[in-house]
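wait is this the right file?? whatever heres the structure
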């Protein structure tokens, strides 16, 4: 979980200007994404514990201070409940490295990776049946690396338990009075939504709630659970977590994009190995809506 400057200021009971100064001088664990300072909560909590134990000595020389590594391995892009659960599990062992996630959508994640603002990107963009590679020349020209599969997952329409409005397919979302919740521009799920709407001749802008945007699958599910929307596109695991009904649209591949020469190679290697683990496969079965047959395997090089 990433905190912004205001949230950290409240957490530490400091003013925001002081937090900015600490971040700029490297005295507090922070990462800079798209021009904003963000703070991995898990790393921040560990730093506070070390402060309390007195392990950070004021008399350290500048040379000693540069050896401390507070920064997390930053993963940016599309979110996924299964992957988030894995990262939380890995963060239980901070001595092996920490992971922070920035929910920027698939396109935003690829751009952040190309700009050096992230160590890895998550994406599920598809064009003519091919995942992610067709988008790299436009979003990240010159970027070289490897595509590793996280999992195949089911995407579809989330509706209230029992489907009281009797929604059956994408065309039903254009019915009068149906309120949808959307994902942010640049997300793979929003692109998928638009593709399905276009396939049945629906102008997305005519849907009630199309401009009501959230950043994650769980937030889509929460909107419907709270009856703030009638339908939205998200993965099956998000529907199951809140007891919603699910109308499958398609199965898709959800990938990690690794740069050719990653800075945090041991930490990234540990993550890829975790994708191949039995624990990861078991968790995917528990959540539902996933196929982990090819998790942790290389799908392509770019």
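ok assuming it is, sequence goes like this
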């Amino acid at each position: 979980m990433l905190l912004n400057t205001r949230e950290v200021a409240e957490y530490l009971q400091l003013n925001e200007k002081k937090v900015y100064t600490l971040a700029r001088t490297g005295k507090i664990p922070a990462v800079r994404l798209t021009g904003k300072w963000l703070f991995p909560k898990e790393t921040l909590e560990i730093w506070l514990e070390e402060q309390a134990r007195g392990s950070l000595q004021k008399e350290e020389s500048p040379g000693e201070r540069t050896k401390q590594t507070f920064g997390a391995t930053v993963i940016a892009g599309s979110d996924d409940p299964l992957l988030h659960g894995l990262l939380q599990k890995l963060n239980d062992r901070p001595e092996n490295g920490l992971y922070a996630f920035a929910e920027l959508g698939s396109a935003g994640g690829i751009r952040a990776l190309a700009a050096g603002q992230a160590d890895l990107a998550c994406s599920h963009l598809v064009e003519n049946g091919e995942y992610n590679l067709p988008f790299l020349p436009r979003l990240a020209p010159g970027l070289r690396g490897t595509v590793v599969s996280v999992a195949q997952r089911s995407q579809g329409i989330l509706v209230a338990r029992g489907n009281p409005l009797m929604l059956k397919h994408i065309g039903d979302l254009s019915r009068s009075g149906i309120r949808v919740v959307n994902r942010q521009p640049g997300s793979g799920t929003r692109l998928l939504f638009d593709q399905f709407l276009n396939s049945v001749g629906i102008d997305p802008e005519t849907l009630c709630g199309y401009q009501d945007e959230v950043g994650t699958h769980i937030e889509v599910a929460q909107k419907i659970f709270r009856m703030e929307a009638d339908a939205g596109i998200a993965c099956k695991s998000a529907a199951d977590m809140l007891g919603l009904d699910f109308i499958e649209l398609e199965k898709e591949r959800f990938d990690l994009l690794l740069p050719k020469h990653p800075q945090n190679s041991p930490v990234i290697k540990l993550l890829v190995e975790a994708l191949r683990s039995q624990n990861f496969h078991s968790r995917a079965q528990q959540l539902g809506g996933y196929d982990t047959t090819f998790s942790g395997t290389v799908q392509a090089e770019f």
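The chain is about 35% helix and 25% strand. so i think its the right one actually
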